[in-house]
Amino acid sequence: MNPLLGVLALPLVAFLAALAIPRRQPQNSRWWALGSSLAIFVLSLILVFRFDQGSGQEQFALDQPWIASPDIHFAISVNGVSLWLIVLTAFLTPLCVLISWRSVQNRVKEFYAFLLLLEFGLIGVFVAQDLFLFYVFWEISLVPMYFLIGIWGHERRIYAAVKFFLYTMAGSMLMLVAIIYLYNRTGTFSYAGILDLLASGKLVFGAQEQLLLFLAFFVAFAIKVPVFPLHTWLPDAHVEAPTAGSVMLASVMLKMGTYGILHFAVPLFPRAAHQCAPWIVVLAIIGILYGALVAMVQPNLKKLVAYSSVSHLGFVVLGIFSFTRMGLDGAVYQMLNHGISTGALFAFVGLLYERRHSLEIADYGGVATVAPWLSTAFLVTTLASVGLPMLNNFVGEFLVLQGTATVHFTWTVYASIGVILSACYMLWMYQRVFYGEAGQEVHHHIFDLRAREWAVAVPFLAMMLWMGVYPQSFLPPVGKVNDAILQESQVDVPVRVSLPVPVLPVRVEAARAH
Amino acid sequence: MAEIPIAWFLTLSAVLFVLGVAGFLFRRNIITVFMSIELMLNAVNLSFVAFSYQLKQVDGNLFAFFVMVVAAAEAAVGLAIILTVFKNRSTLNIDEVETMKN
Amino acid sequence: MQLWLIPLLPFAGFLVNGLAGRRFPKGAVNAVAIGSVLLSFAWVLKTLFTINLDAINQEHYFTWIQSGALTVGCDMAVDRLTAVMLLVVTGIGSLIHIYSIGYMAHEGGYYRFFSFLNLFMFFMLVLVLASNYLVMFVGWEGVGLCSYLLIGFYFDKKFATNAGNKAFIVNRIGDFGFSLAMFYMVRNFGSLDFGTVFKAAPGASEAVLTTIGLLLMLGACGKSAQLPLYVWLPDAMAGPTPVSALIHAATMVTAGVYMTARSWVIYTHAPLALNTIAIIGVATAFFAATIGLAQTDIKKVFAYSTVSQLGYMFLGVGSGAFSAGIFHLMTHAFFKALLFLGSGSVIHALAGEQDMRNMGGLRHKIPWTFWTMMCAAVAISGVPPTSGFFSKDSILVAANHHAPWMYWLGVVTAGMTAFYVFRAMFLTFFGEYRGHAHPHESPPLMTIPLAMLALLSLGGGYIAVPAFLGRFFPTVEAPEDFTLVAISVAFGLGGIALAYLMYIARPGMADSLAGGLKGLYSLVYNKYFVDEIYDAAVVKPVVGGSRVVLWKGMDVGFIDGMVNGVGALARRTGAVLRLLQSGNIRSYATWVLFGSVVVIVALELGGGAR
After folding, report:
1. So where are chain B's domains?
2. Among A130, A257, C86, C548, which is least packed by CB within 10 angstroms?
3. Strand partners of residue A63
4. Torsion over CA: C222, C227, C232, C238 (sign)
5. Preferred mutation among A165, A427, A487 to probe C, highest tally of C CBs within 10 A
6. CA C502 to CA C490: how far, in whole Å?
């Protein structure tokens, strides 16, 4: 059997089976979710081992006609980039099950069912090669997240859930229009088919047409990333979401956006992508700095991490639109890094919340005295997040900035300021939460990691270290794919820019002497 | 036999329809409103049949039968609802049946 | 060669102590921590004795990052420069580890302290052994991390964790320069390997090399506490004293000097960058020395002294006398570590007292500490033939060759150095005891390292570092000039004499002088208000602006306001349209009727229905 189909189908089967578990047996729901998600993880590892890492091609392709008219196929495959995103999803789901073990007490059955459905939708997004199928998975993943926030969230959960839903919906409508337009233009939803048409010259977009289509896709993805200034749903969604929801949202759902840009928007509309790149890069750099500065002054732990995500994801977008091999490699690596380290941050914040029932930084202080191991785990994650070498984020940030520097050194200068700021907000937060003298409340409520929580913390920390020390176990297949993307999206004709190029720093090449 | 011009049928149909509309809009008794609807349906039926005869095509007759069937079904359901409404609220004034509002 | 053993031994110590040290008795923690560092020291000695330092001794372990044309390996190498650094780091490191057993004996978090210290040794050795800039950067950031952790060692104290944050963040500003330099190198040379970069550098344009040089210098300024980024180092004294000695005097803060010397190929082809380094160095040396004149906290005096001495090293390197800079780095490691450890011993003896106004007359009560510290004080004052004399004079001679005004500023600084160090010595050890504690001599575990460092401080000048490095660096032919040497020695002795005059012979003189120059004194006493200026000019505007303008104004107010505004608009439109939906069937019917009439009329007007 095609292992990819297994990885995709198993979450759906697990979801359906989870629905069949009687509501009176929450413990069974938990164990089922844990067992099945672990099985999916194992399956995804099998996928990794059977994946030909030396090839940049799509692998394990499966193409079945689904709906005859319009011609929609159930077409899935995986490449060196989506492979790791699938593994990331499969890696995080069991951990999410574990962190929700105690904190979710009502509607347990539905919670885990939605979590498995979410996994199904996310994996689907990363494997779909038919534009319509991609859209279907894109929306499927939206639904469980909406409920996770809306039912198991905190006080303002309804507001946050609706905001999240409408924001994303607005973008995906644009994308749907673009997809349908593409179908009318080409007669196919097949992504590979359209690329072939483009490559053979049978399909040529007019400049304006290409620009509009690109923007339709890009806005949909940019909302999900989120690119400044489309980010305001994120802090609300994160603050209100339950821990597992935050983890999945930050770690995987945001990557849907960057993955979409990398996998669809850029290869399909390379000309428009290059044309818009200066603008998008300006937004990315604003996002990096703005996210960091706003994160610095947040009084709420989850909001702080949410804004830091805006900052981190700015690096990913910057890397993609540098159109260099290092930039793209770094962007993809940064997607994975952010998935691990921010996922871990949210998980640990969740552990704090479980104990102290507050997300306000001011309610903490001196946690290191009462919970040394929790503090250590959090510290390592913090350091990973600020990009300390030997931990994962450093490699991604380095590659992104290095890639950008080879084409536009000044972009790098501005983006690098974000690295300074990340140290400011993370360490300041860490100081206020963990250092100082432990107050009465902290003393009473906070205790160190328990066995189940160790099981969450250790995989996270191990991944951070592994990805930081030996990134070569992940980078080679990514590089192969990125080479192909760069080749496809090469624009040999000079870009005719109908947009005025921003006057910002971008073009001033400081001290460039050749 | 001299043909009756189609205009006469249409005029009659229009008059009946306007009567139905007027009844529907201005009467408050549910039964009367209901009968007004039937009146409108039958006005339409009349023009269907008239056109069918004029154009020597059977379609119009077919539609008339459809309308009659639907009208019969509607009468059955409608009268049942009216009965229930009357039982529950002991009124037939439609302005007083407004639970669904707001 | 197995170079990896050198850093990995302390790392193993860190892992063992860090993960399990809490359950260990103190003896086991000591054995692991000190054992690993001593083994590492032994391995350094063995390595240095067995290899030929003039050959290329590089080891490649694995490919760390490979992307496109860039390949960065985890590579290590030993050459003459590394050899000096390795000996300083592991040698002084071992002594300070041993000293710490005594010093930390009564402190909480014992295992934590030693595991951090071992982690520091790991990163410092990585920094020194690295054979490309990125691996060096690993060590560079890593030592910064350990510095952060150890400054904030007493993490329940707000001032300590503040100081830790400050150190990390200010260092980050320096690292910003370092990383940009790396990006620029790859952009121009396509590699970060020392070998490749230094081979390609002479062929590159001067503008490129100057840019790289200045960016690297920014990094060095952060790490080595030079103007304008020196502000973290004085605060870093919040950490335990052995940390101040090891990290903030002997090893980590000299990393900037090491890195600059390591990049000599770049700098020799970028005279502008080199000259900037010299200017920053001499300015820092002078500036920090003036602050040191008026401090009352014993550790603060030595902290500013460290900043000042690092300025000397920068001056040496910037004058092109790389070997003199490294020489001073080594001798400074001896006598400054000793000064810090000695002051730690004093603080230990006085149960935590750090203010020199509450000391005095301790020379009979803690004689070991007194005599060893005296050796260091003599050395730092540049009295011949102690170690400081040789290294400082080789720097000053080179500075004179580079630009005479730098020599004169350096000489004045040397006088001030001698003055403030002896001021501290006199205030601490002479006169009457002014405090209330019961001073007692420290245990041998602390005094033996002091004694060894004292020997090194006195005799370290005969370790012929310049000759040893002469084959590594290009030689500067600075003519031996006896007058220059004599002048600087005279200034040093003059400083000592002045201190003697003001604090022993005529005790009232210092106060009356401070009273006479009130404005100047308070300016210096308050460190020129630099911290306050930074706070008002940078920190407050950034934080306040982020909160008020960006977050509340831009994010919540403008962007989210727009988003919610769209929502509100839709809702209000709905509220209007809702009026049509009255729920009255007959009103709907009227609308239908009305609509049909409109449609029919429109069709008629528009040409009639066909």
Report:
1. 29-89
2. C548
3. A75
4. positive
5. A427
6. 18
Residue in C583, C584, C586 nearest the CB of B24: C586
Check pLDDT > 50 for residue C204: yes
- CA distance linking residue A177 with residue A49, whole number of Å: 38
Q: Report the DSSP beta bridge partners of residue C72.
A: C65
- Taking CA atoms, C221 is separated from A374, C130, C213, C215, C231, in Å, by 35, 20, 12, 10, 11
Nearest CA to CA, how far is B71 from chain C (Å)? Answer: 18
Q: Which residue of A has its CA nearest to C556?
A: A232
Say if A229 is an interface residue toward chain C (CB within 8 Å).
Answer: yes
Domain extent listing, chain C: 290-520, 526-579, 582-610
Give the tokens for residue A489: 């999206």
List Cα–Cα distances, B46 to B49, B53, B57, in angstroms.
Answer: 5, 11, 15
Mean pLDDT of B10-33: 90
Chain centroid, CA C500 distance in Å? 33
- Interface confidence, given as ipTM, is 0.91
List chain C residues with CB under 8 Å of A420. Answer: 169, 172-173, 175-176
How close does chain B come to C589, measured CA to CA in Å? 7
Question: For C109, which DSSP code?
Answer: -
pLDDT of residue C609: 52
Q: How far is CA C279 from CA C392, C410, C429, C484, C543, in A?
A: 17, 11, 36, 20, 32
Please give the CATH number for the structural domain made up of B29-89: 1.10.287.3510
pLDDT digits 0-9 by tens, B26-68:
888 888 988 999 999 999 999 999 999 888 888 889 999 999 9
Give CB contacts under 8 A, 24+ apart, made by C20-24: C21/C110, C21/C111, C21/C112, C21/C114, C21/C115, C22/C111, C24/C111
pLDDT-derived band at B15, boundaries 50, 70, 90: very high
Average confidence score pLDDT of chain B: 87
Task: Flag if B25 and C589 touch (Cβ within 8 Å).
Answer: yes
Give the residue from C585, C587, C591, C594 with the most B CB atoms within 10 Å of its CB, the best one to mutate: C585
Chain C contacts of B95, Cβ < 8 Å? 584
What does the alpha-carbon distance between residue C37 and residue C89 come to, in Å, rounded to a whole number? 10
Chain C nearest CA to B1, separation (Å) = 31
Contact A452, A415 (CB under 8 A): no
A residues 415-444 lying closer than 8 A (beta carbon) to C: 416-417, 419-420, 423-424, 427-428, 431, 434-438
- Per-residue pLDDT, averaged over A430-455, amounts to 89
Give the SS3 label for residue A64. Answer: strand
CB–CB contact A402 C551 (8 Å): no
Distance of CA C498 to the CA centre of its chain: 32
pTM: 0.88
pLDDT in tens, A343-377: 999 999 999 998 888 889 988 888 888 999 999 99
Chain C contact probe: residue of A165, A232, A329 with most C CBs at under 10 A: A232
Q: Mind listing the pLDDT tens digit for each residue in A2-20?
A: 889 999 999 999 999 999 9
pLDDT at position A134 over 60: yes
Q: What confidence tens digit (pLDDT) does each residue in A67-118 have?
A: 887 889 999 999 889 999 999 999 999 999 999 998 888 888 999 999 999 9
Q: Distance between CA atoms of C304 and C286, rounded to whole angstroms?
A: 10
For residue range A228-272, list pLDDT tens digits in order: 888 889 998 999 999 999 999 999 999 999 999 999 999 999 889
Sign for the pseudo-dihedral over CA of C295, C299, C302, C304: negative
The span from the CA of A151 to the CA of A9, in Å, is 26
Percent of chain C with pLDDT over 70: 99
Q: Which whole number is the average pLDDT over C3-11?
A: 92
Nearest CB to C165 within list A427, A434, A470: A427
